[in-house]
Specification:
By secondary structure, the chain is an alpha/beta fold. Helix content is about 35%, strand content about 25%. A hairpin with a 2-residue loop joins strand 17 and strand 18. The radius of gyration is 22 Å and the shape is globular. The termini are far apart.
Length: about 425
């Protein structure tokens, strides 16, 4: 059986932050990932709407960690944990490998939640993976291309979009769809944003939420607040508001961004350690990020719930560094994690964004948009990726092009809801 000082499961922001922190002390680690790439998930919507190509936000993990002689990067999926004996089993290409670990850092993130309506997954487009973004991008290109030569009624049907969830992703998708239609395809589209809460971008609140709603509305997005999706079928979405009034909305394309749930590895870890979970399956971890009664197992990021911290990449990165610092004895075992909130931001459309540094310092409009660009450019991994992203942003935001559409994967044609239902 193999042995590793540290095993990291997951290659997102948290997992890579932990890996880089461990490398500072020369600690060897095995990083197991289900994909070969590190995904910059906050920019998936830009891949879906053709602003960026997928490789610009998903560099190979091996490239990101190329200077880490301590790194042993492996492709695989963890299928079992023996927490008492500190043994992990992962599977790749049908072969199972066991590793005895000194410490384990779990950082596998979360998947989309459909609030008990799993059938919605086959009727909507999500944005959690690169494949999700490519599939939505192909769908968007299909409907706009077919609409060019269609009659008025068919064009209206094809260019009808519903976005569910007015968090950052939903707002960004809705805004980009309107901008894409106006500046790139020069066609009229129907975009409806549906949110169960009473405001757009609920975590921001107050004036920033009002600004985001006003900005979306002025661009032509219909915003429905206090409204829930009750059914989805081909060509239409049924919603109900808090007064119980139902409405059917035309929708050739439905983008779902309303909620997350922890993935399968969180359940494996919960069962192996006896750790409790919340309704979304997230691990209710200890203040020092350990899981259950196991001081050698840490869990970080979206797969966990701690102190109501937001499910955002800065939290995962800080948690990853905290866990690594305890392992490399730069912090004492049991040291509680404290999140340093550097603020939140969301882009609405070209030259329109909101930034909240704290309750007293906020920005909106053009200055917030440039702040958003700067921060996301800073966090893009690799100089080459940054250079490519700047070039693509100039083409899309200053010009009218969408370079990401040049990468459309013709081998994975979008499937209409009716065809999926019939399958």
């Amino acid at each position: 059986m193999e042995h590793a000082d540290v095993v990291i499961v997951g290659s997102g922001f948290g997992g890579l932050a932990a890996a880089k922190q461990l490398a500072k002390s020369g600690i060897n680690y095995v990083l197991i990932s289900s994909t070969r790439e590190h995904l910059f998930q906050p920019l998936l919507y830009q891949v879906a709407t053709g602003v960026l190509a997928s490789q610009e936000i998903a560099p190979p993990i091996a490239s990101v960690l190329r200077r880490h002689k301590e790194a042993d990067v492996r492709l695989g999926k963890v299928v079992a944990i023996d927490a008492d004996n500190a043994v992990l089993t992962y599977e790749h290409d049908g072969a199972h490998t066991q590793i005895r670990y000194g410490s384990l850092i779990a950082a596998t993130g979360a998947s989309q939640s459909y609030f008990g309506r799993d059938d919605f997954a086959d009727k909507t487009f999500s944005l959690k993976t690169i494949d999700d973004a490519k599939l939505l991008r192909a769908q968007i290109e299909r409907v706009f291309t077919e609409a060019e030569d269609a009659d008025a009624e068919t064009r209206k049907r094809l260019l009808s979009f519903v976005v569910v969830g007015a968090g950052a992703t939903g707002v960004e998708v809705a805004g980009q769809l309107k901008e894409l239609a106006k500046r790139h395809y020069h066609q009229e589209v129907s975009v409806t944003l549906v949110e169960g809460a009473g405001e757009v971008l609920p975590p921001f609140g107050g004036g920033l939420s009002e600004y985001a709603k006003a900005s979306l509305t002025s661009s032509g997005v219909e915003v429905l607040l206090g409204t829930f999706v009750t059914d989805i079928e081909f060509g239409k979405v049924t919603v109900k508001d808090k007064q119980g009034i139902e409405r059917r909305i035309a929708a050739e394309t439905v983008v779902w961004s309303a909620g997350v749930q922890a993935g399968g590895f969180a359940q494996i870890l919960a069962e192996a350690t006896g750790c409790e979970t919340d309704r979304a399956g997230r691990l209710l971890i200890n203040p020092d990020l350990t899981v259950g009664g196991h001081a050698d197992i840490y869990a970080i990021g979206d797969m966990t719930s701690l102190n109501r911290y937001p499910g955002q990449s800065p939290v995962a990165m800080q948690e990853g560094r905290h866990a690594a610092d305890i392992i490399r004895r730069k912090k004492l075992p049991g040291t509680p994690f404290e999140y340093w909130d550097k603020g939140s931001m969301a882009v609405i459309s070209r030259f329109s964004a909101v930034v909240k540094l704290n309750e007293h310092i906020t920005f909106r409009g053009v200055i917030a948009w440039f702040m958003w660009l700067a921060v996301h450019l800073l966090y893009l991994v690799g100089f080459r990726n940054r250079f490519a992203a700047v070039a693509s942003w100039l083409i899309a935001f200053i010009g009218t092009g969408r370079p990401g559409f040049d990468e459309v994967d013709t081998a994975r044609d979008p499937v209409r809801i009716s065809e999926r239902d019939a399958a």
